[in-house]
Amino acid sequence: MDIYHTTYGDQANMLLHNNGDGSFTNTTTQAGVQYNDGAMDLFAAGHIDKYRPFKNNNCPGSFLNIILVGVESNPNGIGAQADVWVSGQRISRNVLPDGGFHDNSDLKLHFGLDGAYSADSLIISWPSGIIQKMYDINANQFLTVIEDESTGTTDGIIESTDITVFPNPVSSTTHIRYSILDTRYSKLCVYDSFGRKIQTLVEEIQAAGTYTISFNAEGLQAGVYFYRLISGGQVVSGKVIIQ
C-alpha cells in the first residue's frame, strides 16, 4: 500500500512508494499520466500543488476493475460491498462517496489480483439486501455488474436431477455424480459460504458418460458448502452439508 501525503500549509504534497520492507521512497517527481491500463493512478487536488495527476508505472500483476449499477438500490451502488476471492484470500471494497475539500473517491472498485489469471468468485452485497454471486471471473478486465433483482438473498442455486451428491450430509468423503451427453470441457469446484474456492475437483475435457467424483471433506469446518459444475454452456450448482 503506497501513501499520498497531503498538506494544507506551505509544504508540497508527496507520493510515497512502499518498498515492502517498512520504508517508503518519495516518488513525487517521477509521476506521469495515463489511464485505463489497470494500474491504480491518482489525481490529487492540493492547496499549494493545485491539481496533479500521478501514473502508476509499476503494476506487473493482474487486476479487476468493477462498476456497480444499482436497480433496486441506488443507481451508483453507493453503500454496496464487493468481495473478491482469489487464491484463498478475500479482497473487500466498498462503494463510498467520501472525499475531502477538493476531492472525492472513485466509485469504480479496483482489485489487485497479484498475477492471478482469474478470481474464484465475486460476491456483491447491495444496499437493497440482494446478494449477487459470480464465479471464475477472468482477470485484467473492466467489468460492469448490474444489480440482479431475481437473485434475492439466495445463492442462485439450481438443483438438478442430472447431478447427485451422496452421502449428503457428509462427515468425511462424499461423491458427486453427473452425466454429460457429448464431449465437452467440464469444471467442478467446491466453495465455502463466503465464495472462497475450497477445491477444484475436475478441470478437463470429458467424453460423454457418467462420472462419479469424490470430495474429501475431512479437516473442513462444519457448515454449508456449494459445488458448481460448468459443463459446456450449462452451469449447475447445489449444496453440500458438512457435519
H/E order of the elements?
EEEEEEEEEEEEEEEEEEE
What is the gyration radius calculated from CA atoms? Answer: 22 Å
Q: What kind of sheet is the major sheet?
A: 4 strands, antiparallel
Gross morphology: elongated
Tell me roughly what share of residues is in helical segments.
under 10%
Q: What's the count of strands?
A: 19
Mean pLDDT equals: 79
The end-to-end span amounts to 40 Å
Number of helices: 0
Structure description:
The structure is a single chain. This protein is an all-beta fold and 243 residues long. Helix content is 0%, strand content 49%. The protein has no helices and 19 strands. The chain has strands at residues 3-5, 14-18, 24-26, 42-45, 51-54, 63-69, 81-86, 89-94, 109-112, 118-125, 131-138, 141-146, 163-166, 173-180, 184-191, 197-206, 209-216, 223-231, 234-242. The strands form 6 sheets. Strands 8-7-10-11 form a 4-stranded antiparallel beta sheet, with no helix packed on it. Mean pLDDT is 79; it is low at 31-35 and 152-161.
Topology diagram in text:
Blueprint: E1 3-5, E2 14-18, E3 24-26, E4 42-45, E5 51-54, E6 63-69, E7 81-86, E8 89-94, E9 109-112, E10 118-125, E11 131-138, E12 141-146, E13 163-166, E14 173-180, E15 184-191, E16 197-206, E17 209-216, E18 223-231, E19 234-242
